[in-house]
Amino acid sequence: MPLAIDTVNKQAIASAFSRAAGSYDGAAALQRETGEILLGLGQGHSGAKVLDAGCGTGYFSRRWRDMGKKVAALDLAPGMLAFARQQQAADEYLLGDIEHIPLSNESVDICFSNLAVQWCGHLRVALNELYRVTQPGGIILFSTLAAGSLDELGQAWQQVDGQRHVNEFLPLEDITAACGGFRYQITQRMHHQYFNDLIELMRSLQGIGATHLHQGRDNGLTGRRRLAALQAAYPHQNGLYPLSYQLVYGVIYRD
């Protein structure tokens, strides 16, 4: 089974999230909700050192730090990491990739990665790296998006021009397979957001930096005619525009 997305452009992803640093927290309702759930899964762990892998603005780095943990914040996007540093969200700041974490083996007790590993090219490589830097007895907490996420938007675009124009995410069985060999627990939940209009919906994605497409961006996507066609094709629920996310929460126990 394919456990990787081979066309990930890390530089483009880093640039998109760097541009969104100032607006991210105001648009990140989904990230807050998933992060709180993920935080709850590891809140009882006694470990003192936390790696926030894909820290973004450092919101959850700060949450861990307020719990008395020593936190290293890691992000691929320089703009995000700079914002986290300005907020004094962590004890240490690392510019880097989850697939190549710049830490030594067994150097943290808890790895926390909220809605970040879906941007990796190879999920198994990312999980191996999180496992490597975690001490025995520690835990790895991650949330990610699975296939079916943003499906309403993809189907509407399909009607407009025959292409989905949304990021493709791994199916649940591939995410589970990437955890093979670890002692782990996986749960899946559906999350729905509703918007008053299509512009609000699209801005919610821009606000969190999630406008990069794994297969490359199409500069014509925002033309008025195409947007009108997209709006006509988009499904409505009680006058609102729905957007669905297939969320996966994972806990890996470091043996």
TrEMBL record:
The keyword Methyltransferase applies. One of its GO terms (molecular function) is S-adenosylmethionine-dependent methyltransferase activity. Residues 51-142 form the Methyltransferase type domain. Its EC number is 2.1.1.197. The keyword Transferase applies. Signal peptide: none annotated. Pathway: Cofactor biosynthesis; biotin biosynthesis. Keywords: Biotin biosynthesis, Methyltransferase, S-adenosyl-L-methionine, Transferase. It comes from the Bacteria. CDD domains: AdoMet_MTases. It catalyses: malonyl-[ACP] + S-adenosyl-L-methionine = malonyl-[ACP] methyl ester + S-adenosyl-L-homocysteine. GO terms for biological process: biotin biosynthetic process; methylation. NCBIfam families: BioC. Converts the free carboxyl group of a malonyl-thioester to its methyl ester by transfer of a methyl group from S-adenosyl-L-methionine (SAM). It allows to synthesize pimeloyl-ACP via the fatty acid synthetic pathway. Belongs to the methyltransferase superfamily. This is Malonyl-[acyl-carrier protein] O-methyltransferase. It comes from Yersinia nurmii.
